[in-house]
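# nightly structure sweep
# worker-07 picked up a monomer target from the shared queue
# config: single-sequence mode, recycle default, output format = structure tokens
# input follows
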Amino acid sequence: MEQGSLRCDANVSLRLIGAEKLGTRSETKNVNSLRSVERAVRSEMIRHAGILDKGERVIQETRHFHEDTGETTPGRSKEQAEDYRYFPEPDLVPVAPAADWIEKIRSSLPEKPSVRRKRIQEEWQVPDKEMAAMINADVLDQVEETVKLGADPTRARSWWLGEIARLANEREVPAASLPITSKDVAEVVALIVKGELTDKLARQVVEGVINNEGRPSEIIEKRGIKVVSDDSALLQAIEKAIAAQPDVAEKVRNGHIPAAGALIGAVMKETKGQADAAKVRELLLKHLGQG
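# output follows
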């Protein structure tokens, strides 16, 4: 139409007053202007109404519109499927499979994707937004496999949609194509739950796996990654941090708890990030009389 040309088919069918369904339609072919469409439709409305008023039946057919008279004339009948050129294939015999065979095939089919997604979302109680994120990132299979290996669903999808997705974006590849498996992620999650890894240390392990440094246990051994959980070692680092920042420690003793962040940061640095920050905070506040 942006070129000033138009070619369309105008379909018309009428419904008798009180009837629920529209009557038989006619199809006026290749009408080439908006004005002609209006004239063709009007002509067909009048023609249909005249036929129906007489109690006769409208024939399903194509019609040709004549610009000079504003009327339509019959083209080709389309009363049967064959009129639309739907013909049986002569080289194919009719097939009527047995009902039990059909049922056998149906029962062997895998779970429908839509049914599976709905089941997973209900079982894991996943919000719509996060479900859409897993589907869009194409990691639903990986998350499900991670959960089957014992990981908590929330932690499993958090890793696949968080750190792993971030590293995938950096490399401009799909997350599922990275050299990290659901087994690797499940192992990392299990170590976090046991308290043998913090989230920060776990990110180092995941990055190592993706960099082809080995499996999680191998990377932990090679890099010497270990959570500092011994109270005496933590207290030693806490006392060192207090000695280095006595003014900050005094603020905490006087009840200014937010100031503890600087001391916690110093302890984490001293332990090379291998301490549990929550435990460090607890011990620090207790040591300064705020626990």
